[in-house]
């Protein structure tokens, strides 16, 4: 029989995923709830968390709580300021912030910030740092850690540290152009299409005039070169190609650990192969969060 | 006393601007109406045009009519297919298409299409070709003709011809990101700010990872480096800088004729100066349309 020892959660803008750990760090229960930051309504963070506990985990309110994600932003429960890169697991432990609560013992993991090497551009992440250190726990080798998504992150790992990282607004750009620009107008019943996707990857990689290349989504349709149902795959290719070439030029085809789930990670795998990355491995995003939250907890309690 | 000889119009998706010419090509009356393609409602193109004539130009229905712009697109009155570059004024005359009308003698100017040199990307324009040849009539020198806007056009002029051109979705990208992306969230009471604009130009020119650079609109705000009221100027700078560097790299700092009106052209003038273009002159966009429509009419009737 196992004894519960920690409740942790990845608490973001839309998602809330809770993990209950035993004393050995094994996850013995998982729970998702619709209390992302934008769905809280009139509830405080404490009330929202208590309601989840009451429904699903009664009697466990005495456990320590550890939260990562946007819950630590300025709009969150309490701000856990971004910690600077280079950063290791200890950096996250040092940056933990206690959330104000009368009933619960809650700590929040800080996000990270970095200047992109060579450009002076500032970058921030919240939640991904926990996934990254979760994966580094079992495999601390150097290379890229890539987390595709709304705001894709490319972290440079060296000596078990996050040296620096960049953000690419690839996922959000895709949604916004599809829903709100002229490029979405001719798109129909989108289906995956490898040919159109790879054509987009090639165009996005080898033509750096981004604002010009994307207009070809319209002209390729006007001249019947790409079917309306494949335009979305073509646009997706251009965007992912544009993201990949920027990192490839700066850092070469380093080994990549690709973190995430489902169809999006499939696309990145194809695109990275096309771009000449030879050493690409993929990891489950939820498992990475689970491992990272436990690693932070262990290091904190060992001190 | 002057005799009316031609009615011409620039008829686009949102705008309709009509010009009445005397026999010497002087514009003796102008009229704007709210009958852009998206505002036509149940009216046919012929009905819409007749209603404008009835209200403002009664008795002139016997004149020849010449129309340019989206009225010649697949969604227009009749399609005037895109003519291929290189193109000169004769190309436009050869591509004129008669619109079906029982009461009026209407011809529509074709748009142009081109493959961007070196990239294979297709480009199209409708309306701008008429402005370009209007300006070339008085000044046929080589260089760039640049028409900033929703979809900015950079036409390469050589020997009085449009050799080729590119499109940059700069204006639309600005609107879409401001209204529908996370980058608009922190923007407040936007005001012009030269410092933020030039910082954006520099970042957009010297950092080619477009999807990454734009995320700095958010981080520069998070770290209080740029005031919320200046974020919009900063984003605008990134986009225009990104447009300009692409053309500068391909074709060098050729002389630029900048065509348009108002604040947007002011911004491009500043940005081009920053980018090292020495020979930049500006021209009024409406005057260019007027001159172009007359030039097409003259060449047609001389034959």
Automatic annotation (TrEMBL), chains A, B:
Membrane-spanning segments: none
Domain of life of the organism encoding this protein: Bacteria
InterPro entries in the cross-refs: ATPase_NBD, DGOK, DGOK_C, DGOK_N
Any one Pfam family match given in the protein's UniProt record, by short name: DGOK
Protein name per Swiss-Prot or TrEMBL: 2-dehydro-3-deoxygalactonokinase
Taxonomic lineage: Bacteria, Pseudomonadati, Pseudomonadota, Alphaproteobacteria, Caulobacterales
